[in-house]
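Service request form, structural biology core

Requester: graduate student, group of Dr. S.
Request type: structure prediction, single chain
Budget code: on file
Notes: please return the result as structure tokens.

Sequence provided:
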Amino acid sequence: MNYCVYCHEAFFEPVSWQFIAGLSESLSFCEECSSSFEAINGECCRMCGRSFRLFPEQYRQKQCCTDCVRWEEHEEWSGVLTKNRSLYVYNDFLRKVISTLKYRGDAELVQGLKTPFCKLYKKEFRGKMIVPVPLSEERHYERGFNQARLMAELLGGEIVSPLERVIHEKKQSKKSRKERLNIQENIFQASKEAGKVKGKSILLIDDVYTTGATIRQAAKVLREAGALEVSSMTVGR
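Core staff response, request fulfilled:
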């Protein structure tokens, strides 16, 4: 018997030959919670990974969504980010899961995402240098951990910290779309470890990709520090 890491209800794993042989990993979410995740599959924007089935055709330009087209048309942000890939659509259930993780301190929830997160990493980004998006000191103190760091640790590779968050701003979840896109000043700067990214392909890790503003600000600093290219991977999109 297992207990769901989110709803804490007891459940039995379905019996299969893989289960009997010990080849399947223990499930972390019950069937009801597991079915509430909405996996991103099928056609998606080649840059941000947004599923094309979730928005009208007029917001698509060939293999990109119009948001990414606008980013690439902007002189300052063009070419900064190679691509993003995410596990799940940021629906109401995933919002609650991430909120529980970030604001109630339930860091164990991260372990429930290990298998699919590692699978996505091996499929899309194997071998890239792993960089978690940092929190401000104030936010880190409030939570006691950085959720992006916990997610990065699931991947088992070397983690470097070439970024520092220098501006503590209003929570992204409280901002309007216009506010997120209106970047006045980069919230990141290079840290003492920035030299490690020179000539490397970097993978940024964060919990959610919304407009791409935070990811691109981090990527810009890394590119300026000499990174060969920068991609990102998140749980939600």
